[in-house]
Amino acid sequence: MKLLVFSDIHGDLRALGQIAAAEADAYICAGDLATWSRGLEDCARVLAPLGERLYMLPGNHETAAQVAGVCQRYGFHDLHGKSVEMGGYYVAGLGYSNPTPFDTPGEYSETELAARLAGFAGLRPLVLICHAPPRDTPLDRIRDGVHAGSTAVRDFIQAEQPEWFLCGHIHEAAGVRTEIGRTRCANAGKRGYLLELK
Length: 198
Hints:
α1 (about 15-20) packs parallel to α2, α2 (about 40-45) runs parallel beside α3 and α4 (about 110-115) packs parallel to α5 (about 150-160). By secondary structure, this protein is α/β, with parallel strands linked by helices. It has five helices and 13 strands. It has helices at about 15-20, 40-45, 65-75, 110-115, 150-160; strands at about 1-5, 25-30, 55, 75-80, 80-85, 90-95, 125-130, 140-145, 145, 165, 175-180, 185, 195.
């Protein structure tokens, strides 16, 4: 089963069209289709042909309610805080980011992130998809010595060791891959990451 995970489109309809045209069995948006909630509907219209093959998370630039509404109107799946079975794996999703300096609409405290991630503990085998990357890793590096990811996400990965972890949020780390223990990790970015579940 091929799963295409992408994030941080921020209204780039051309990039979104390329994602929608790519071949996959399922598509997961890991957040930030819009910027400050603007353009969300335009993006949804581009993705409309994917229908029920598309799963969505809110990033820090849209609210959970806005994403839930788009999913309801277009027949997408709202994956925020939920898990589904795909290709013999549990695929779990959590949107929003840890706090930012910009006070964007979709932010959780580290305590909230940890509490919501706890609901996925024990799922095996697990593919975890979050908007926020794990703190102090190559996936959240803005520049040398500057990281902006989530400690709660990092702690969960270290404790639970999902098979795969994919995220977005930090544009400078788009396309970066790493490993945390045995967990294979990637920042999907707006070009997307094609994950083949075997």
